[in-house]
Amino acid sequence: MRSISGTLAAAQKARVRRPYLLVSVSDRHAGIRRLRWTQWYAGTEADGGHAAVVAADGSLTRARFDGTTLSRSRVTTPVIGSSYGSWSVWSAPVTPKANLIAFAKAGSTLWAFIVNNATPTQVYAATSADNGATWGAFALAFT
To answer: Fewer Cβ atoms within 10 A, N terminus or C terminus of the chain?
Structure first.
């Protein structure tokens, strides 16, 4: 049998005892701090293919398909109070329907790629040399 200290024994026998509780909260998963995302925009656009890229100048370019219409949006200084609801129609080359879109970037040059649903082996590309402010036409990049 183990004995306890005199102070602890006296506290245990006292009429009034004060409970002690240690609580530790950690917002980590596997030792890594979790990111807490903040929603900046909750649009009314229909679900569909979409992509986004942050250009070298900090602007945000987004693209989405709504049926057979490809639209894009560019926000020059994206912050929580920016307007994310303005879209302009972006003519795609051959779209009976094309739900797959992707962006890539290198410096101030952006590329947009779409895959034609009718011929899924065809990938079309358009480029922008000015951080997404203006875009060239889509052309067949590879099959």
So the answer is: N
Overall number of domains in the chain: 1
User: Tokens in use for 27?
Assistant: 């917002």
Neighbours of 98 (CB within 10 A): 23
Task: Assess contact for 62 and 52: CB atoms under 8 A.
Answer: yes
Q: Tell me the backbone φ, ψ of residue 21, rounded to 5 degrees.
A: -135, 125
Query: 110 pairs with which residues across the strands?
Result: 105, 128
Residue range of the domain that includes 100 = 50-142
Q: Determine the Cα–Cα distance for residues 85 and 88; give it in Å rounded to an integer.
A: 10
In a domain, 119, yes or no: yes
Q: Which amino acid does the sequence have at 106?
A: A
Q: What is the pLDDT of residues 7-37, one digit of tens each?
A: 888 877 887 767 776 777 778 878 888 888 7
Distances (CA, A) of 67 to 53, 64, 101: 22, 10, 13
pLDDT tens for 75-127 read: 999 988 888 888 888 865 544 467 788 999 999 999 999 888 888 888 889 99
